[in-house]
Write a structure and sequence with these properties.
This protein is mainly β. It contains three helices and 16 strands. It has three domains: about 45 residues, no CATH class; about 110 residues, Immunoglobulin-like (Sandwich); about 110 residues, no CATH class. Helix content is about 10%, strand content about 35%.
Protein backbone atom coordinates (compact mmCIF):
# COMPACT_ATOMS: atom_id res chain seq x y z
CA UNK A 1 0.00 0.00 0.00
CA UNK A 2 1.36 3.43 -0.98
CA UNK A 3 2.03 5.53 2.12
CA UNK A 4 4.03 8.63 2.96
CA UNK A 5 5.91 6.57 5.55
CA UNK A 6 7.07 4.06 2.91
CA UNK A 7 8.15 6.93 0.63
CA UNK A 8 10.17 8.50 3.47
CA UNK A 9 11.75 5.15 4.33
CA UNK A 10 12.73 4.47 0.72
CA UNK A 11 14.33 7.91 0.39
CA UNK A 12 15.86 7.71 3.90
CA UNK A 13 14.53 11.19 4.55
CA UNK A 14 12.04 12.51 7.14
CA UNK A 15 11.59 16.12 6.03
CA UNK A 16 8.60 16.53 3.70
CA UNK A 17 10.18 19.59 2.08
CA UNK A 18 13.47 17.78 1.42
CA UNK A 19 11.53 14.80 0.07
CA UNK A 20 9.58 17.16 -2.21
CA UNK A 21 12.78 18.77 -3.50
CA UNK A 22 14.38 15.38 -4.20
CA UNK A 23 11.29 13.90 -5.85
CA UNK A 24 10.72 16.97 -8.02
CA UNK A 25 14.38 16.89 -9.10
CA UNK A 26 14.18 13.23 -10.02
CA UNK A 27 11.09 13.97 -12.10
CA UNK A 28 12.79 17.01 -13.69
CA UNK A 29 9.85 19.23 -12.73
CA UNK A 30 9.57 22.36 -10.55
CA UNK A 31 8.76 22.00 -6.87
CA UNK A 32 4.95 21.76 -6.52
CA UNK A 33 3.27 24.91 -5.20
CA UNK A 34 1.43 24.85 -2.93
CA UNK A 35 3.29 21.94 -1.38
CA UNK A 36 0.90 18.96 -1.25
CA UNK A 37 1.72 15.54 0.20
CA UNK A 38 -0.62 13.90 -2.32
CA UNK A 39 1.16 15.63 -5.21
CA UNK A 40 4.56 14.60 -3.85
CA UNK A 41 3.42 10.98 -3.60
CA UNK A 42 2.11 11.09 -7.17
CA UNK A 43 5.49 12.35 -8.37
CA UNK A 44 7.27 9.66 -6.35
CA UNK A 45 5.05 6.99 -7.92
CA UNK A 46 6.39 8.06 -11.34
CA UNK A 47 9.93 7.02 -10.42
CA UNK A 48 9.65 4.48 -7.61
CA UNK A 49 8.46 1.37 -9.40
CA UNK A 50 11.08 -1.42 -9.45
CA UNK A 51 13.50 -2.17 -12.25
CA UNK A 52 13.15 -5.41 -14.27
CA UNK A 53 14.84 -8.39 -12.55
CA UNK A 54 18.39 -9.02 -13.78
CA UNK A 55 20.68 -12.05 -14.09
CA UNK A 56 17.76 -14.48 -14.48
CA UNK A 57 19.17 -18.01 -14.29
CA UNK A 58 17.77 -21.53 -14.29
CA UNK A 59 19.08 -24.42 -12.24
CA UNK A 60 17.69 -27.96 -12.36
CA UNK A 61 17.28 -29.28 -8.84
CA UNK A 62 18.33 -32.79 -9.83
CA UNK A 63 21.56 -33.67 -11.67
CA UNK A 64 21.12 -35.08 -15.18
CA UNK A 65 22.43 -38.50 -14.19
CA UNK A 66 19.97 -38.92 -11.29
CA UNK A 67 16.34 -38.51 -12.41
CA UNK A 68 14.69 -40.98 -14.74
CA UNK A 69 11.11 -39.67 -14.52
CA UNK A 70 9.25 -36.43 -14.71
CA UNK A 71 8.61 -34.16 -12.90
CA UNK A 72 11.74 -32.14 -13.45
CA UNK A 73 11.89 -29.23 -11.03
CA UNK A 74 13.33 -25.92 -12.20
CA UNK A 75 14.76 -23.39 -9.75
CA UNK A 76 14.92 -19.88 -11.23
CA UNK A 77 16.94 -17.14 -9.52
CA UNK A 78 17.48 -13.44 -10.27
CA UNK A 79 18.81 -10.20 -8.79
CA UNK A 80 17.17 -6.84 -8.08
CA UNK A 81 19.10 -3.98 -9.77
CA UNK A 82 17.36 -1.49 -7.47
CA UNK A 83 18.02 -3.42 -4.25
CA UNK A 84 20.15 -0.65 -2.74
CA UNK A 85 18.00 2.22 -4.00
CA UNK A 86 14.52 3.56 -3.28
CA UNK A 87 13.25 1.41 -6.17
CA UNK A 88 13.83 -1.89 -4.39
CA UNK A 89 11.26 -4.62 -5.04
CA UNK A 90 9.22 -6.27 -2.30
CA UNK A 91 7.83 -9.27 -4.19
CA UNK A 92 7.94 -10.97 -7.57
CA UNK A 93 5.63 -12.69 -10.02
CA UNK A 94 6.83 -15.67 -12.06
CA UNK A 95 5.26 -17.65 -14.89
CA UNK A 96 6.48 -20.43 -17.17
CA UNK A 97 5.52 -21.31 -20.74
CA UNK A 98 6.22 -24.20 -23.10
CA UNK A 99 8.03 -23.19 -26.28
CA UNK A 100 6.70 -24.71 -29.48
CA UNK A 101 6.77 -23.98 -33.19
CA UNK A 102 3.95 -21.46 -32.87
CA UNK A 103 5.63 -19.46 -30.10
CA UNK A 104 4.79 -20.29 -26.49
CA UNK A 105 1.91 -21.64 -24.41
CA UNK A 106 1.32 -20.95 -20.72
CA UNK A 107 2.09 -24.10 -18.74
CA UNK A 108 -0.08 -23.18 -15.76
CA UNK A 109 -2.84 -20.63 -15.33
CA UNK A 110 -1.65 -19.73 -11.83
CA UNK A 111 1.47 -17.57 -11.45
CA UNK A 112 4.11 -18.10 -8.78
CA UNK A 113 4.37 -15.22 -6.26
CA UNK A 114 7.33 -14.89 -3.92
CA UNK A 115 9.07 -12.37 -1.69
CA UNK A 116 12.43 -14.06 -2.39
CA UNK A 117 14.66 -13.71 -5.46
CA UNK A 118 14.05 -17.28 -6.46
CA UNK A 119 11.14 -19.53 -7.31
CA UNK A 120 10.70 -23.21 -8.04
CA UNK A 121 8.46 -24.47 -10.84
CA UNK A 122 7.15 -27.91 -9.87
CA UNK A 123 4.81 -28.42 -12.79
CA UNK A 124 6.06 -31.80 -14.02
CA UNK A 125 8.30 -30.40 -16.74
CA UNK A 126 8.96 -32.79 -19.58
CA UNK A 127 12.28 -34.15 -20.78
CA UNK A 128 13.85 -32.59 -23.89
CA UNK A 129 11.43 -29.62 -23.97
CA UNK A 130 11.95 -25.89 -24.34
CA UNK A 131 10.52 -23.46 -21.76
CA UNK A 132 10.35 -19.71 -21.25
CA UNK A 133 10.32 -18.23 -17.73
CA UNK A 134 9.18 -14.66 -17.14
CA UNK A 135 9.74 -12.70 -13.91
CA UNK A 136 8.18 -9.35 -12.95
CA UNK A 137 9.13 -7.23 -9.92
CA UNK A 138 6.63 -5.36 -7.74
CA UNK A 139 6.68 -2.85 -4.92
CA UNK A 140 4.06 -0.56 -3.38
CA UNK A 141 4.55 1.94 -6.22
CA UNK A 142 4.17 -0.22 -9.29
CA UNK A 143 5.67 -3.07 -11.27
CA UNK A 144 8.54 -3.57 -13.69
CA UNK A 145 8.59 -4.93 -17.22
CA UNK A 146 8.94 -8.70 -17.61
CA UNK A 147 12.44 -10.22 -17.62
CA UNK A 148 12.61 -13.62 -19.26
CA UNK A 149 14.85 -16.61 -19.83
CA UNK A 150 14.61 -19.53 -22.25
CA UNK A 151 15.97 -22.97 -21.36
CA UNK A 152 15.60 -26.59 -22.41
CA UNK A 153 15.33 -29.66 -20.23
CA UNK A 154 17.65 -32.58 -20.69
CA UNK A 155 16.86 -35.91 -22.36
CA UNK A 156 15.58 -38.81 -20.30
CA UNK A 157 18.74 -40.60 -19.07
CA UNK A 158 16.78 -43.86 -18.81
CA UNK A 159 14.13 -43.85 -21.56
CA UNK A 160 13.03 -47.39 -20.80
CA UNK A 161 11.64 -46.18 -17.48
CA UNK A 162 9.93 -43.12 -18.93
CA UNK A 163 6.53 -43.71 -20.54
CA UNK A 164 4.16 -45.90 -18.55
CA UNK A 165 5.83 -45.30 -15.20
CA UNK A 166 3.98 -42.99 -12.85
CA UNK A 167 6.00 -40.26 -11.17
CA UNK A 168 5.77 -39.94 -7.40
CA UNK A 169 2.99 -37.63 -6.21
CA UNK A 170 4.18 -34.04 -5.67
CA UNK A 171 4.65 -32.91 -2.09
CA UNK A 172 2.05 -30.56 -0.65
CA UNK A 173 3.43 -27.01 -1.04
CA UNK A 174 4.41 -25.22 2.17
CA UNK A 175 4.40 -21.54 1.22
CA UNK A 176 6.74 -19.02 2.79
CA UNK A 177 4.28 -16.17 2.31
CA UNK A 178 0.64 -15.23 1.69
CA UNK A 179 -0.72 -12.57 -0.69
CA UNK A 180 -4.24 -11.13 -0.74
CA UNK A 181 -6.32 -8.89 -3.03
CA UNK A 182 -9.79 -7.51 -2.25
CA UNK A 183 -11.65 -7.45 -5.58
CA UNK A 184 -15.12 -7.45 -3.99
CA UNK A 185 -18.10 -7.06 -6.33
CA UNK A 186 -21.30 -6.43 -4.37
CA UNK A 187 -23.18 -4.88 -7.27
CA UNK A 188 -22.60 -2.82 -10.39
CA UNK A 189 -19.77 -0.46 -9.44
CA UNK A 190 -20.08 -1.42 -5.75
CA UNK A 191 -16.85 -2.68 -4.16
CA UNK A 192 -16.86 -3.08 -0.38
CA UNK A 193 -14.18 -3.39 2.31
CA UNK A 194 -13.39 -6.72 3.94
CA UNK A 195 -11.24 -7.88 6.85
CA UNK A 196 -8.43 -10.41 6.40
CA UNK A 197 -7.72 -12.65 9.41
CA UNK A 198 -4.76 -15.00 9.83
CA UNK A 199 -4.77 -17.54 12.69
CA UNK A 200 -1.60 -19.35 13.75
CA UNK A 201 -3.23 -22.61 14.85
CA UNK A 202 0.05 -23.93 16.25
CA UNK A 203 0.87 -20.90 18.43
CA UNK A 204 -2.80 -19.98 19.10
CA UNK A 205 -2.33 -16.37 17.96
CA UNK A 206 -4.02 -14.25 15.32
CA UNK A 207 -3.64 -11.08 13.23
CA UNK A 208 -6.15 -9.15 11.12
CA UNK A 209 -6.36 -6.06 8.94
CA UNK A 210 -9.03 -4.02 7.16
CA UNK A 211 -8.60 -4.30 3.38
CA UNK A 212 -10.28 -1.59 1.24
CA UNK A 213 -11.43 -2.30 -2.30
CA UNK A 214 -8.47 -2.97 -4.59
CA UNK A 215 -9.99 -1.49 -7.75
CA UNK A 216 -7.91 1.21 -9.41
CA UNK A 217 -9.00 4.24 -11.44
CA UNK A 218 -9.17 2.12 -14.61
CA UNK A 219 -11.68 -0.25 -12.98
CA UNK A 220 -9.36 -3.25 -12.73
CA UNK A 221 -8.33 -5.27 -9.69
CA UNK A 222 -5.91 -8.11 -9.01
CA UNK A 223 -3.28 -7.26 -11.64
CA UNK A 224 -1.26 -4.91 -9.45
CA UNK A 225 0.69 -5.46 -6.23
CA UNK A 226 -1.14 -7.45 -3.53
CA UNK A 227 -2.86 -5.37 -0.86
CA UNK A 228 -1.55 -7.68 1.84
CA UNK A 229 1.92 -9.24 1.66
CA UNK A 230 2.81 -11.62 4.49
CA UNK A 231 5.49 -11.43 5.75
CA UNK A 232 6.27 -7.71 5.36
CA UNK A 233 6.56 -4.63 7.57
CA UNK A 234 3.16 -3.68 8.93
CA UNK A 235 1.63 -7.17 8.60
CA UNK A 236 2.80 -10.29 10.40
CA UNK A 237 5.28 -13.16 10.19
CA UNK A 238 4.99 -16.82 9.27
CA UNK A 239 6.79 -19.56 11.19
CA UNK A 240 7.92 -22.57 9.17
CA UNK A 241 6.13 -25.73 10.26
CA UNK A 242 3.19 -23.88 11.84
CA UNK A 243 -0.35 -24.52 10.63
CA UNK A 244 -2.42 -21.50 9.63
CA UNK A 245 -6.03 -20.68 8.78
CA UNK A 246 -6.95 -17.53 6.85
CA UNK A 247 -10.44 -16.05 6.89
CA UNK A 248 -12.05 -13.25 4.87
CA UNK A 249 -14.77 -11.42 6.85
CA UNK A 250 -17.30 -9.16 5.11
CA UNK A 251 -19.24 -7.10 7.69
CA UNK A 252 -21.83 -6.10 5.06
CA UNK A 253 -22.62 -9.74 4.31
CA UNK A 254 -26.19 -10.83 4.99
CA UNK A 255 -26.33 -12.37 8.47
CA UNK A 256 -23.22 -10.56 9.73
CA UNK A 257 -24.87 -7.45 11.13
CA UNK A 258 -21.99 -5.16 10.20
CA UNK A 259 -19.56 -6.89 12.57
CA UNK A 260 -15.96 -7.99 12.05
CA UNK A 261 -16.48 -11.46 13.52
CA UNK A 262 -14.51 -14.43 12.14
CA UNK A 263 -16.48 -16.77 14.43
CA UNK A 264 -19.82 -15.84 12.85
CA UNK A 265 -20.53 -18.03 9.82
CA UNK A 266 -22.68 -15.24 8.41
CA UNK A 267 -19.62 -12.97 8.26
CA UNK A 268 -17.14 -15.45 6.76
CA UNK A 269 -17.06 -15.35 2.95
CA UNK A 270 -13.85 -17.32 2.32
CA UNK A 271 -11.37 -19.42 4.30
CA UNK A 272 -8.50 -21.85 3.85
CA UNK A 273 -5.56 -23.51 5.58
CA UNK A 274 -1.88 -24.09 4.88
CA UNK A 275 1.35 -25.14 6.58
CA UNK A 276 4.13 -22.56 6.34
CA UNK A 277 7.51 -23.46 4.87
CA UNK A 278 9.91 -22.16 2.25
CA UNK A 279 7.98 -22.76 -0.99
CA UNK A 280 6.74 -19.83 -3.13
CA UNK A 281 4.04 -17.66 -1.59
CA UNK A 282 0.43 -18.65 -2.02
CA UNK A 283 -2.42 -16.19 -2.32
CA UNK A 284 -6.12 -15.52 -2.68
CA UNK A 285 -8.26 -12.97 -4.51
CA UNK A 286 -11.69 -12.25 -3.00
CA UNK A 287 -14.20 -11.42 -5.76
CA UNK A 288 -17.65 -12.36 -4.40
CA UNK A 289 -18.32 -14.18 -7.68
Amino acid sequence: MRTALDMAKRLDQQSIRKIAVEVAGLNLVPLPKPLSLLQIMKLFANIAKPEPPANVRNNFLYPTESPTLSPIHSEVTWTDPGAKTFRYATHYRGRISVLDNSGSTRLTAKDNWTTDRETVFQDQLNFDTGYKVAIMAYNEWGNSEWSWLKFSTYSNPNPSQGPGTSPPPPATPKPGGFLFWNCDVSGVGIHLDVYFWLFDLTANTYWYQLVPSGYDSSGTCGDGPPQIVIPSPGTTLLTAGHNYRWIVVKPDNEGCGGNNDPNNAGCVVATGTFTAGSDPATGYTWTNT
